[in-house]
Amino acid sequence: xxxxxxxxxxxxxxxxxxxxxxxxxxxxxxxxxxxxxxxxxxxxxxxxxxxxxxxxxxxxxxxxxxxxxxxxxxxxxxxxxxxxxxxxxxxxxxxxxxxxxxxxxxxxxxxxxxxxxxxxxxxxxxxxxxxxxxxxxxxxxxxxxxxxxxxxxxxxxxxxxxxxxxxxxxxxxxxxxxxxxxxxxxxxxxxxxxxxxxxxxxxxxxxxxxxxxxxxxxxxxxxxxxxxxxxxxxxxxxxxxxxxxxxxxxxxxxxxxxxxxxxxxxxxxxxxxxxxxxxxxxxxxxxxxxxxxxxx
Length: 296
Description:
296 residues; alpha+beta; six-stranded antiparallel beta barrel; 12 strands; 27% strand
């Protein structure tokens, strides 16, 4: 305290000078219209600049949330476009029934937004790591999509991270797909090389389609709902045995620029797994054997 008083006494004239300057400024700008107007104009400009900078900073740090929302919204919009396309094609039927069926089907699924934290595209067996795991509801064998289409399938999960087998995995990726509007289905494979191109195998010889048509998920598995975009047919080949077609597809997903994805959670998947376990259980096998013996 003594040192503080000594400091004030030693430099009191500077404190007095600052106080008189403040009083003079207040009197000048408060009781003179021109100076008051100039002060308000300058203050508003400075305040506006500060607020604009603050808004830019807030906008920058909110981009992650905006990207996640856009990814989810884009996926739902694709599903709605698919619904409208089918309703238009079946215009002579009861569209209300079709719409209810589509909404009931979509209610099975929920989306978990995630960020890609590790990715590769130039290996033979590429893998993707995302920042969501068991704590967020992610489980193995869940489908992963982005705003442009299919990404892959969850392979391993930890508490807060998951490893995804993408389409660009030559040895492990096999996704059931179909030609949009045609109904013919096959399996999507990647042979390595160009990360923008994959192939659809086992399209039957009697199938009718053409280049430029779209390939989408078939919905024949519990991993992906039907109608999720995969890519566009670019070339058509005969299979090695000549019994089917092989299609070269330009993928709609840009794996080299993949940032935001969504994990598709099928709410009925647990029920399906439980049913399969019961079918494969010893009790079910013995019951089936007893039933056959009784029939004989």
